[in-house]
Amino acid sequence: MKMTQQTQYGFYFDSSKCTGCKTCHIACKDRMTGLVRAKDDVMNNGVANLPGIIWRRVYEYGGGNWSQNVDGSFEQNVFAYYMSIGCNHCSEPVCVKACPTGAMHKRREDGLVQVATELCIGCESCARACPYDAPQLDIERKVMTKCDGCSDRLAEGKKPICVDSCPLRALDFDTMDNLRAKYGEGDGHIAPLPSPSITSPNLIIKANRNGQPVGGSGQLLNPAEV
Amino acid sequence: MTSTNSANTNAQPTFPNSYAEAQKIGVFRAFSKTPVLALDSYINGGKAVSTPSGKIEIYSLSMAQKGKDWIFNPNVKGDYITAIPMYQPTWDGYEDEDTKDDYPLQLAGYHTKGRTHSSYHNVPWLREAAEDAVWMNPTDALGRGLRSGDKVQMWNERGTVELPVRITPRVAPGVVALGQGAWYQPDIARIGRSGHPIDVGGCINTLTRYQPSPLAKGNPQHTNRVQIVKA
Ligand code: SF4
Ligand code: SF4
Ligand code: SF4
Question: For ligand 1, is residue A146 a contact (CB within 6 Å)?
Fold first, then answer.
């Protein structure tokens, strides 16, 4: 019998609320460190830094210009907003397609895209394919890691830690059916996100009032932080 | 526990008994029943305010007195107190002729989300999440040939710091901004243009001046002129 996917989980993100505080980024990293470095001797060695592995990234996007008047004063139309992005557990996951070993896979039961670590050879094909930069290589273990949708917390009836940690309540996570019932289709994706046509991401966005169309005239202002 | 703390006995709404209860309540809001009016007792109650005249003063008698009695340093530009609020050109200010050629940029400090003052600066996750870079407008970066992420040296006569630059329209031309609280880390093997060891920790206090402000005698943390070049 052919199995069909019953449930598809996804995220909701409200860019009009997000202040870019990065609590989600840190909360995710805290849980992730427990998962991938649980056996570390924390009392003696401290908590692992895991440099460069960021499952939830907060992008600062902005633009606009300054011009000077003859009297020396300035005019400006500067804008900026934040986008907090993990993995969108896409319906057309190009990461899965790109993976040569089948390590990157989409779960039938809930649509979450995860890495089967024992199959991963660390070739980074998924990371190159994903337009959201979701797969993050663990250089020490030479395996790919990424947002797993906090599936352990879901099993306990909780929401992901990024969602629960957000002081501005800018994030939500649920089945896409429930999210659509609650938020509708949202405002469509805005920069710096790529066109949703590439991977059919399960991500509903409420746009910031300065939200720029995909490929807009602004730029990523915090490349070192994502 | 919060709910049994005597200071909270009369709190409205009542404090939760447990963390689980607090989580169920969610956001804890307290609304004041009456609108709060500043200087209500003066405006509606006919009581005096605590000025020498008992009235709201535009010309402040107490400031006039302080300006006359206190000792100021005539060599410190802007070290005086006036009875009427006014703009005071100051040392290292926008109009300071003495420093504007050597140090054309004004440096302001701000509270970064990456730590609380200097606390938690040593947490590597936070250093990764919030880059300690000096913010600079694209017009100022252009003349200096700088790109985001370049390492720069920023100095004035008080010290030299070395850190990355972030080019962003979110700061005005002629102004640069640095999150305060990073830990001082002198590289004693290298002397900067200021004649001091280069602070590779990027601590803003390396560049600030220990010169109490005229009235509050506070730190003039945001009064700094600097120059920046690619390191
Ligand atoms: S966001 Fe990237 S890693 Fe996640 S499912 Fe989509 S393509 Fe794959
Ligand atoms: S769902 Fe979990 S793993 Fe994914 S970004 Fe949120 S906290 Fe991180
Ligand atoms: S915790 Fe919330 S407000 Fe803070 S950066 Fe993340 S999504 Fe934005």
Answer: yes
